[in-house]
Design brief:
Layout (H helix, E strand, L loop, with lengths): L4 H41 L3 H25 L6 H32 L5 H27 L6 H32 L2 H24 L15 H36 L3 H28 L3 H26 L15 H35 L6 H53 L21 H20 L5 H6 L3 H4 L3 E5 L15 E8 L4 E7 L4 E5 L2 E5 L2 H16 L9 E5 L5 H7 L6 E6 L3 H6 L4 H4 L12 E3 L2 E7 L2 H6 L7 E6 L15 H9 L1 E12 L5 H14 L4 E7 L2 E10 L5 E2 H9 L4 H9 L11 H7 L2 E4 L19 H8 L6 H9 L9 E2 L2 H13 L12
Parallel strand pairs: 1-2, 6-7, 6-10, 7-9, 10-11, 14-16
Antiparallel strand pairs: 2-3, 3-4, 4-5, 8-9, 11-13, 12-13, 12-15
Helix pairs in contact: 1-2, 1-3, 1-4, 1-5, 1-6, 2-4, 2-11, 3-4, 3-6, 4-11, 5-8, 5-10, 7-8, 7-9, 7-10, 7-11, 8-10, 9-10, 9-11, 9-12, 10-11, 11-12, 15-16, 20-21, 21-25
């Protein structure tokens, strides 16, 4: 029976609101998958800037591919909703395959010779291209259900907006519920179930609706039409470039100010998508009534220049000065109140530009629409152009623009990109074909003088906006979410360290001697007027030359060597995370050490930051790189620029280290939890030589009881005889280190002290004494007594304390959700004292003459350790 197109259109129009629900569900599931897949794949190919760029490029590349291929290979005669249903089923099936297929693929990747860009891209393509291509095909498939009329184009924009609205919901729910409470498999099953429901609903709608496609031949576009569409594609590609470039830059800057937790990233992405959703709805309404969508698109892009300039002003001149002190939101208000402030601050900066980017997409569709065009191809082409620009923007800004030119110039380039897009679009609407009256006149008359004047004005405004973008204050890089607290004490400009004169400077002021924006993190080196130096990363102090920090950094090195089964035979050392280089420098002092490998994800740290602490780290990394190993005090020192987990994972099985020490950024920083999972500790243990030791820095400050228990219990799950050594003062918990050994062994205090008394170990003793490990009243025995008096507990005694701890695994990365929720809490003393409730003298670990044992017992008692009955429950 022949279908009446008019009746079909009326039937379709009644179903269009239900399609919004389909796209909402599809967007929700897609965002959950994006979060899960990126986390899973970062565990395999690393979380460095190169790896992340590969993942984002592959994800968006698959969507671009799907949007182009489906309209060309699926006939218009197939009901669009049936195609949509099959696509959703395919996405859900691919998600399940990725979940179960990634572990064996990861095993193949580990055994693959070489783990460069090609191998990483291959793993990403195998996992991401199939499902993302199906995702990219959903919008072109559904677009065929409407006509290429102004009303139909408007509905295409509404579909896009509903998809974004679902992504916003998926972003919040995955970050704050699914992954915080459950794990990645549960999140995957939930999203796949939603795909199934969407597919079933779409199939049901297809059976109850008639569909009449345009069966006639599609007329070839004229030269003028092709040229006009080319300008639209170019404009929307530049729009995608600036949108994803801005997301990269602004996420980086806002994560400094808000704290680089998983919740911050969820908030930033959700607000960005929310703005695009609002803009898409507005743009869809404009597309229905606008007499010339190309002009509207051009104006939209020109307005973006002001919105980007506004965001640059807000992040550098406004938000850092808001009187927000995160430390006061840890009581009854809890973190949820601070999350509301974070949403407000993000929206204040991001929303104007995000809405304009969202409005650009439906306007671009309207600008290429024609009644004789296949709606699927029309939408697919615009979507592909936008996505291609987004791929280029995300890669260029994350891997080239910000590391090479900084965020200031990155934001200037964003303004220029938006301006070029707008000018191209507006210029394409100017007709250069003379009318009958103008034939024979000078071509100069064809361009209106008013248009030329407006162009000059626009260029002047754009130049002004570019000029107004200022550099972010170094205080924000140094102190992040506490920027407002330190603004009054900070010298506004960078000052050469050689120019500082402590005797004439105010003792209350701080000075920045270096500021750098690398591919992975932004770093700063500051100095107090008293002369102490500080290394800042992720918006907080990561290392310093202050006594307390120096003590912990030296502990990580010395305890790691001296607790080995044969300290004098320690030869190979791996240091994960360079920091100020102090821990790595301690290994230079040991005569038996032959090779030191330092692995850091950010090249700026070993290349620039650590050499600024040369006196404290014995110049261990000066002029050192992977391509240029250096002999330092008879040791071969090599620096590897890679994610520590990826480096360990891809080591050959026969590579062993006597010591592996890990000092990553705080566990609340997104991605850091991957260096604290059971699977990672097992990788490290596999690469320990017999009698070897692994040590790990843990913060007790900016932690909660739950996150501290999770971190300690996870480590003890792998290292059954693990120990805790505390860097406390008068029982005030600050930070500590965990220490685990490849096999249980006792520590002979007498033998260790004799080793330190040997002339070859005199530099080691001096290094210990510089940070307080060497009693003047007992110089012969004081080093080992003071050093081991930092002991705070062992795994066998803390079983009850860690009984209900949530174990951090690859599949849940629980630690980053626990610690990210309570990073503004200050419970270090309470946490430490709760650990001491389970203290007993470790006579199963320390052995030696009574003189040493009694001295150690007394030192531990003086440090607050008391053998008392532990509480009934943890």
């Amino acid at each position: 029976m022949k279908i009446n197109p008019a009746e079909c259109d009326r039937a379709c129009r009644r179903l269009l609101p239900w399609l919004l629900l389909l796209f909402f569900g599809s967007g929700f599931a897609a965002l959950v998958y994006e979060v899960v897949w990126l986390q899973l794949l970062e565990l395999v190919i690393g979380s460095s800037g190169v790896s992340l760029g590969i993942l984002l490029g592959t994800f968006m590349g698959g969507m671009c591919l799907g949007s182009l291929l489906l309209p060309r290979h699926i006939s218009q005669s197939v009901h669009p909703l049936r195609v949509y249903a099959l696509l959703e089923l395919g996405i859900g099936l691919c998600a399940i395959i990725v979940l179960f297929g990634l572990p064996p693929l990861a095993g193949l990747y580990e055994s693959f010779y070489g783990h460069g860009v090609f191998a990483r891209a291959l793993v990403a393509a195998i996992c991401l291209i199939p499902p993302t291509a199906l995702m990219g095909a959903t919008l072109p498939a559904a677009a065929r259900f409407v006509r290429s009329t102004p009303e139909g184009v408007s509905w295409m924009g509404f579909f896009y907006g509903a998809n974004i609205a679902g992504a916003v919901a998926g972003c919040f729910l995955s970050g704050f519920v699914l992954l915080r409470i459950f794990d990645m498999p549960v999140a995957t099953y939930a999203a796949a179930t939603l795909n199934l429901l969407v597919a079933a609903f779409a199939m049901m709608l297809s059976r109850g609706s008639a569909y009449a496609h345009n069966s006639g031949d599609v007329k070839p576009a004229s030269i003028a039409q092709s040229s006009g569409r080319f300008f639209v594609y170019l404009a929307i590609a530049l729009s995608g470039l600036s949108a994803l470039g801005a997301e990269v830059v602004w996420t980086r800057l806002l994560s400094l100010l808000l704290g680089a937790t998983v919740y911050t990233f969820s908030i930033i992405l959700a607000v960005f998508l929310f703005g695009m959703g609002i803009g898409s709805a507005a743009g869809s309404l404009m597309a229905r009534v606008s007499p010339n969508p190309r002009i509207s698109l051009g104006v939209c892009q020109m307005l973006l220049t002001g919105a980007i300039a506004w965001a640059a002003f807000v992040i550098s001149q406004s938000l850092p000065y808001w009187p927000v002190n995160p430390g006061i939101y840890t009581g009854d208000l809890g973190p949820w109140f601070l999350f509301q402030l974070d949403i407000l601050r993000t929206a204040w900066m991001v929303l104007p530009a995000a809405m304009l980017w969202g409005a650009s997409f439906p306007l671009a569709i309207a600008a290429t629409a024609a009644s004789d065009r296949d709606p699927g191809r029309m939408v697919g082409a615009v979507y592909a152009a936008n996505t291609a620009g987004a791929i280029l923007g995300s890669l260029a800004f994350s891997m080239v623009v910000v590391p090479q030119f900084g965020s200031q110039w990155a934001q200037r380039i964003l303004i220029i990109a938006a301006a070029v897009s707008g000018i191209l679009m507006l210029a394409s609407t100017v007709s250069f074909k003379p009318s009958g009256r103008e034939i024979g006149k000078s071509s100069r008359a064809l361009v209106p003088y008013s248009g030329l004047a407006w162009t000059i004005v626009a260029l002047l405004v754009i130049a002004f906006l570019v000029h107004t973008v200022s550099r972010i204050p170094w205080v924000m890089v140094a102190w992040g979410r506490f920027s407002a607290n330190y603004m009054a004490q900070a010298e506004p400009e960078l000052i050469s360290e050689n120019a500082l004169k402590p005797d004439v400077k105010s003792p209350s002021r701080w000075y920045c001697t270096y500021l750098g924006e690398g591919m992975n993190i932004s770093v700063a080196v500051t100095r107090s007027a008293a002369g102490a130096r500080f290394f800042h990363g992720a918006g907080k102090v990561q290392a310093s030359s202050q006594p307390r920090d120096m003590r912990l950094q030296r502990m990580l090195g010395h305890l790691s060597v001296l607790t080995c089964r044969n300290p004098e035979k320690v030869e190979n050392v791996l240091v994960i995370a360079c920091g100020a280089g102090v821990t790595a420098g301690t290994f230079v002092l040991y005569p038996g050490v032959r090779r030191i490998v330092i692995c850091d994800i950010e090249p700026l740290v070993p290349q620039v930051v650590a050499p600024m602490f040369g006196r404290e780290n014995y110049h261990v990394v000066d002029g050192v790189s992977r391509q240029n190993p250096r002999i330092v005090n008879g040791k071969e020192v090599t620096v590897v620029y890679d994610d520590g987990r990826h480096y360990v994972r891809t080591l050959p099985d026969d590579v062993k280290f006597d010591v592996i020490t890990s000092d990553p950024v705080d566990p609340w920083v997104k991605g850091s939890a991957a260096l604290n999972t059971i699977e990672f500790y097992e990788m490290c243990k596999k690469h320990l030589a017999p009698g070897g030791v692994m040590s790990l820095w843990i913060p007790l400050y900016e932690s909660s009881m739950a996150s501290s228990k999770s971190m300690i219990a996870t480590f003890f799950r792998v290292f059954k005889d693990g120990m805790i050594f505390s860097n406390d003062e008068h029982l005030e918990g600050y930070d500590a280190m965990l220490l685990g050994r490849a096999s249980p062994a006792q520590i002979d205090l007498d033998r260790t002290q004799q080793l330190l008394n040997h002339p070859e170990y005199q530099p080691v003793r001096q290094s210990l004494e510089e940070v307080g490990f060497g009693r003047t009243e007992d110089p012969e025995h004081g080093n080992v007594v003071d050093l081991f008096a930092t002991f705070a507990g062992q795994a066998s005694d803390l079983g009850a304390w860690t009984e209900k701890a949530q174990i951090n695994r690859d599949k849940n990365l629980r630690l980053q959700y626990l610690s990210g929720m309570w990073l503004n809490s200050y419970l270090g003393t309470r946490i430490f004292q709760s650990i001491l409730c389970y203290y007993r003298f470790p006579d199963n670990i320390f052995v030696g003459p009574d003189l040493y044992l009694n001295s150690l017992k007394m030192a531990l008692a003086q440090g607050g350790r008391r053998e008392i009955a532990p509480p009934a429950s943890p």
